[in-house]
Amino acid sequence: MSFTNFLVTATVAWTDVDEVDVHDGLTIILRDGREMGSVAFGSSLLGSFTGYRTHQRAFHLLREAQLAASETQGGNSKGQVRRHWSFEWRRLLCVLAVAYGPLAVTLVLSR
0.85 cut: is pTM over it? Predict the structure, then answer.
């Protein structure tokens, strides 16, 4: 299970996922009680009023995958929940190119 939030991706094993929740934005609750969320499926005032209808399809897909993984792998494993973090440097380069590309062109043309 992976969540990408702009430049950082966090990954955990499906067996470490205890629950999928859509109460305050789409949230993955790990066996050790920690929560993982996504910027794309975050909480909002409108979502609080409407019951996060836009998040429901993703919620059901994740919930089904989590249940299937726990059935095939014999339920939750014991031990520490490990999260792997990775840095998305390609995204950072794209953001920098979009932000500073026009500035660089302007500086070159103004000389």
Answer: no
